[in-house]
Amino acid sequence: MNYSKNKISISKIVVIITAIILIIILFLILFLNIRIYKINGTSMSPTLIEDEYVLSYKSFYNRGDIIAFHYKDNVMIKRIIGLPNDIIDIDEDGNIYINDELLNEPYLPNKAKGDIEITLPYKVPSNKYFVLGDNRADSLDSRNIHISSISENDIIGTVKVSLIPLKKIS
């Protein structure tokens, strides 16, 4: 008789714990806008690798952050290089200058100018961000006239954690 009472108590505890975990997950998804994305392509390599999964969430956006944003019917993931009202210039070696100061990019093993369709120097409009892929030689980003600067309203969130393998993103 004691055994069946114990069994019922344990099953009730498991149900309660499961319900609490589901409520926490629902809270994270709804209120913190946490999203999971699969990396398609190589435009963010070596930082992010194709077929890797990443976690993004709403936050404030700073230079150097990797963000997920809407572009047409796609979600793109790129690094913020320019903030609103910054003046961006890129030299022939792929060095980036922001407001006439060289940008330190320790996350890039190789620099490249890549294809540039915008006119340089480029002034980032108010409430917009200038984004680039880390693989500058092969990235569709703000250098393209169709993408140009990203509106803050199009930003889904900051990408902070790679889920496979689990690592913090710089």
Could you please say which CATH topology of the largest domain applies here?
Umud Fragment, subunit A
The biggest sheet, with number of strands, parallel, antiparallel or mixed sense and barrel status, is: 8 strands, antiparallel
The radius of gyration computed from the alpha-carbon positions, rounded to a whole number of angstroms, is: 21 Å
Count of DSSP strands: 12
- Report the CATH C-level class of the largest domain: Mainly Beta
Q: Helical region count?
A: 1
- Tally of structural domains: 2
Distance between the termini: 58 Å
Fourth-tier CATH superfamily name of the largest domain: Umud Fragment, subunit A
Q: What is the helix fraction of residues, given as a range?
A: 10-25%
Secondary structure category = alpha+beta
**Would you list the SSEs in sequence order as H and E?**
HEEEEEEEEEEEE
Question: Strands, helices and their partners?
Answer:
Layout: H1 2-31, E1 35-38, E2 53-57, E3 66-71, E4 74-82, E5 87-90, E6 96-98, E7 101-102, E8 122-123, E9 128-132, E10 150-151, E11 155-163, E12 166-168
Note down, in words, how this protein is organized.
The protein is of the alpha+beta class and 170 residues long. It has 2 domains: 1-31; 36-168, Ribbon (Umud Fragment, subunit A). It is 18% helix and 32% strand. It contains 1 helix and 12 strands, in the order αββββββββββββ. The protein has one helix at 2-31; strands at 35-38, 53-57, 66-71, 74-82, 87-90, 96-98, 101-102, 122-123, 128-132, 150-151, 155-163, 166-168. Strands 1, 2, 3, 4, 9, 10, 11 and 12 form an 8-stranded antiparallel β-sheet that branches. Strands 7-6-5-8 form a 4-stranded antiparallel β-sheet, with no helix packed on it. The longest helix has 30 residues, at 2-31. The termini are far apart. The relative contact order is 0.20. The mean pLDDT is 84.
